[in-house]
Amino acid sequence: MGFAYTAFLIGTFCGLIQVFMRNEMIQLPAWLDYYQVLTVHGVTLALVYTTFFIYAFLITGMSKALGSFGPKVARWSWIGFFVAAAGTVWATIEILSGRASVLYTFYAPLKASGWFYVSLALLIIGTWIISFALIAHYVKWRKANPGVMSPLFAFMTISTLAMWIIACLGVVAAVVFMFIPWAFGWVDTINVELSRTLFWFFGHPLVYFWLLPAYMAWYLVVPKLLGTKVFSDSLARLSFLLFILFSIPVGLHHQLTEPGVADFWKFLQVTLTFMVVIPTLMTAFSLFATFEISGRQKGAKGWFGWVGKLPWNDIRFTSLFIAMVFFIPGGAGGIINTSFQLNELVHNTLWVVGHFHITVGTPVAMTFMGISFWLIPYLTGRTLTKTTKKLAFIQIISWSIGMLLMSTAQHVLGLLGAPRRTQHSNYSDHPTVLGWFDGFFSNTATLAIGGIILFFSAMLLIVIVFRLWLIEPRSEEGDLYAEFPIAESDASATPRWLENWWIWLGIAVALILLAYTFPISHMIQDAPPGSKGFINW
Ligand code: HAS
Which InterPro entries match (predicted)? Predict the structure, then answer.
């Protein structure tokens, strides 16, 4: 958790520099360039903050759901942590020393130092070690409890880890067999298209690797805070299984403008992407049902009377609720992105940057913030005092306002044509470009105000984390803010085949083979000329 929030501190500071640069309010010193800052921003927030936070949450939850770890699981979890941490520190050094300004997607033919790719590999290996330790803990529990459905938290953890391990195969193949030999000069060229395809094999499930732990909190923590049970155990399990199936064979929707992939394969993967709508809407349905049931139990009347019965003054709930609301436009934007023709309009524009700030940057990040408000006290044995609770409300509200301003500006600017992945430019004051910034939202000032509010909110969060970790008073017996809230989930009617991993992993592998075998074999057999590396910073 400490590692995650250190990355958050560095990453959000780089975010502030980004908006100032887009606004032409600052000029960087000669030793620091825009792409370096953007790479640190993307890597620390999208990869490091999320990954370390997620493992902190999963590790704690698994020991709560299945019982304390044995010495082997504990030891391997620590080893995994140190390997991942070493990889992260090393990658950060490579980026800060100017040898890896390749952004978090590290697209070839941009070429970083070979050690950058090695350090990324260490980060992935570290996460695998922790994942296998957690899977071992689960297997042991199942052996000790034959024929019993595992607790929902454990089931969701294993689904998330299964998806993560399969997804990483793509990026591991790209890094080990393509980037490392190329970056160290053992081969002269790289097959750019294949490297990107392997990256997106990993890159899209990566976004669900961020999202699913947030879903775990929505499914399990929210009903507990509302004083009710999980709406449907089978629905929750099925929705996680559908994510394993439909999050991987869909990476080509990030490459719809990529030449050299036959339309049919893009069409197939876009169709599979749309299938993700099903578990998403199942989740929304289940949550609304939970809200309504708990409201009615508390005496709510009429269609929307339950809204007033929700525990709005409980920051653990309100933060998660706002996060969910942000996911409505965030997810809808995803549907636009993946619509073949509409993608032509938004691809590589600031729209996509707006999209990921209201998916990973708010629904996911804000859920993680909401979890921190009780998970840190749970781990440190401290409590969330009234003062810190007030600060937490200010933090969540300011994050929402800042994100609303910044991401709306990014969406609008993107629709008008402002590009992403490039340093800000007025293109010699071309009238079209100047026109982008005329609107209320499409205005660099709006972007900057949004960014500044976000930075203020991020610093407030650091203060809260610090207080919860070291300053707040010790919690007392029965303190609600220092417990790990997991709702009861009735698995008595849940079909046993939902926990037969061979079925689900088998279908997942079949779908992956269907979606990827032909495009990848074409990219290898009819490989375009490889590219040498470019270091243009
Ligand atoms: Fe995305 C680009 C498509 C969801 C993150 N996405 C990105 C990038 C990131 C990202 C980081 O098809 C940039 C990558 C880069 O650097 O190039 N995205 C989708 C689709 C979904 C989606 C179809 N994205 C996410 C999530 C992310 C995330 C979640 C992070 C956590 N995305 C794309 C595409 C691109 C893309 C293209 C490439 C664009 C390009 O050209 O470069 C789906 O998962 C969306 C499902 C959503 C819905 C819609 C409605 C949602 C409803 C609300 C559900 C509410 C719930 C909560 C569950 C079906 C109705 C309850 C709510 C209450 C209020 C109680």
Answer: Ba3-like_Oxidase_I, Cyt_c_oxase-like_su1_dom, Cyt_c_oxase-like_su1_sf, Cyt_C_Oxase_1, Cyt_c_Oxase_su1_BS
**Sequence letter at residue 109:** P
Query: From the CB of residue 234, how many other CB atoms can be counted at a distance below 10 Å?
Result: 15
CA distances (Å), origin 460, targets 14, 127, 140, 392, 429: 16, 29, 41, 8, 38
Q: How far is CA 279 from CA 151, 242, 273, 369, in A?
A: 20, 6, 11, 24
Give strand pairing partners of 110: 534
pLDDT per position as a tens digit, 421-435: 888 888 888 988 888
Which candidate, 242, 265, 245, 243, places its Cα nearest to that of 253? 265
Q: Which amino acid, residue 384? A: L
Question: Which residue in 355, 382, 411, 467 is the catalytic one?
Answer: 355
Q: How confident is the model over 463-513, as pLDDT tens digits?
A: 999 999 999 999 888 888 889 999 999 999 999 999 999 999 999 999 999
Question: In the structure encoding, which two tokens stand for residue 409, read together?
Answer: 């500006």
- The C-alpha atoms of residue 391 and residue 401 are separated, in whole angstroms, by 15
pLDDT at 277: 94
The model's pTM = 0.95
Partner residues linked to 474 by β-bridges: 382
pLDDT over 90 at 68, yes or no = yes
- Percent of the chain whose predicted confidence (pLDDT) is above 70: 100
Catalytic residue among 208, 215, 231, 246: 208
Question: Three-class SS of residue 111?
Answer: coil
Residue that is written with structure tokens 């017996």 in the block: 477
Q: Quick one: pLDDT at residue 285?
A: 97
What SS3 class is residue 448? Answer: helix
Q: What is the pLDDT of residues 147-183, one digit of tens each?
A: 999 999 999 999 999 999 999 999 999 999 999 999 9
Is 133:76 a contact under the CB 8 Å cutoff? yes
Of 357, 350, 337, the closest CA to residue 417 belongs to: 350
Is 420 an annotated catalytic residue?
yes
| Annotation says 518 is catalytic | no
Q: How many CB atoms lie within 10 A of CB 381?
A: 11
Angle between helical axes of 501-525 and 263-274 (0-180°, round to 10): 160
Q: Which protein residues are within 6 Å of ligand 1, measured from CB?
A: 105, 207, 210-211, 253-254, 273, 276-277, 280-281, 283-284, 287-288, 324-325, 327-328, 331-332, 334-335, 337-338, 343, 347, 352, 355-356, 359-360, 364
Q: Using 50, 70 and 90 to split pLDDT, how confident is the model at 99?
A: very high
Reduced to 3 states, what is the DSSP secondary structure of residue 419? strand
In 3-state terms, what secondary structure has residue 531? strand
Q: Which residue has the least CA distance to atom 45 on ligand 1?
A: 331
Give residue 44's pLDDT band: very low, low, confident or very high (50, 70, 90). Answer: very high
Active-site residue, from 393, 421, 441, 456: 421
